[in-house]
Amino acid sequence: MEYWTHSSLQRSVVPLCLLLFLCISTTTFLKAKAFNLTTLTFSDSYSPLFSEFNIRRSPDDKTVHLLLNRFSGSGIISSDYYNYGFFSASIKMPSKYTAGIVVAFYTSNVDTFEKNHDELDIEFLGNVQGKAWRFQTNVYGNGSVSRGREERYRMWFDPSKDSHRYGILWSPRKVIFYVDKIPIREVVRNAAMRGDYPSKPMSVYATIWDASSWATNGGKKKVDYRYQPFIAEFKDLVLEGCIVDPIDQIPSSNCTDQIATLLAKDYSSITSEGRKSMRWFRERYMYYSYCYDNIRYPVPPPECVIISSERERFKSSGGLRSNIRLGATRRRHHLRRITKRQSKTAVAASGLEALI
């Protein structure tokens, strides 16, 4: 039996308070009401895009695994084109060594509009084992790839351990990117953007591929096929929008009503709590934004909203200042001070064991 002295109890209180503070602070910003979504089977939503031999579907057709090996990557495409919508999937990243790999979930119409295509991207950049995963979001309109609107972030969790839901809201008014129902980025349509705002019907894609030339540390780390196959899992597939013919010159009359329905959904606007969550994420995990890249854009693009608390963290190149550390690093540093025994004892005593 272990007896606790007054001094030992005092020593346990500080780590417990610290742990509770960190947990409460984090969960306060991560609270989000669950979206009411209808999920689809693979057959009802997607078709193979390339390398069907590297695509594995579950027996119930609700989960699809995309493989990358030394022969090829793989990809899927939505069976229909959409004129605005909300597109989402629960995704689990490949594990172990994944340098040089890109897993992407995005919308595009490059197959139909080769020289003036639109695109909305969530791209996960492979990591060196033990390092935080990185990912980026992009917005392209009317072939404006030379005027890319990229932002890059680090994860506050390991996306290879469990599935997490990622979503893209694309409406006539705005684009919102989501991670686990947390809005991480909002691009509000500005008239000065003109064709740079995506407005033509798009398909939805999911792919995994070898991007050794740039994805990890600027291409210094390559895909290591000793760890193949690399498997990305997609499930809980959601495609909500107006289905259209991409080359039809007369928009479907049904889209007026369906777009109105889309705009009324809870994921089409950000609540005050959602804005707190978005600020929490961006101030701790965003490490590049084109809006603060004064070298690339001496005058910020018209849709940029300059936020002083973000602005002060970035150099003129849009990257973090050298003395800025991301929130995950600071939190891990504090958590290391709590011994394993103290953590387990304190958390079990307070009924918060699930948060370890």
From TrEMBL:
Give the first-level EC class, as a single word: transferase
Entries under Pfam families matching the protein? Glyco_hydro_16 (PF00722), XET_C (PF06955)
Query: Which SUPFAM superfamilies does the record cross-reference, listed alphabetically?
Result: Concanavalin A-like lectins/glucanases
Give GO cellular component annotations, separated by semicolons: apoplast
Q: Name one GO molecular function term.
A: hydrolase activity, hydrolyzing O-glycosyl compounds
The organism's place on the tree of life at top rank:
Eukaryota
GO terms under biological process: cell wall biogenesis; cell wall organization; xyloglucan metabolic process
> What does the UniProt entry say about where the protein is found?
Secreted, Cell wall; Secreted, Extracellular space, Apoplast
Which keywords appear in this protein's UniProt record, sorted alphabetically? Apoplast, Cell wall, Cell wall biogenesis/degradation, Disulfide bond, Glycosidase, Glycosyltransferase, Hydrolase, Secreted, Transferase
The record's comment on protein family reads: Belongs to the glycosyl hydrolase 16 family.
Specify the protein name: Xyloglucan endotransglucosylase/hydrolase
Record organism = Handroanthus impetiginosus
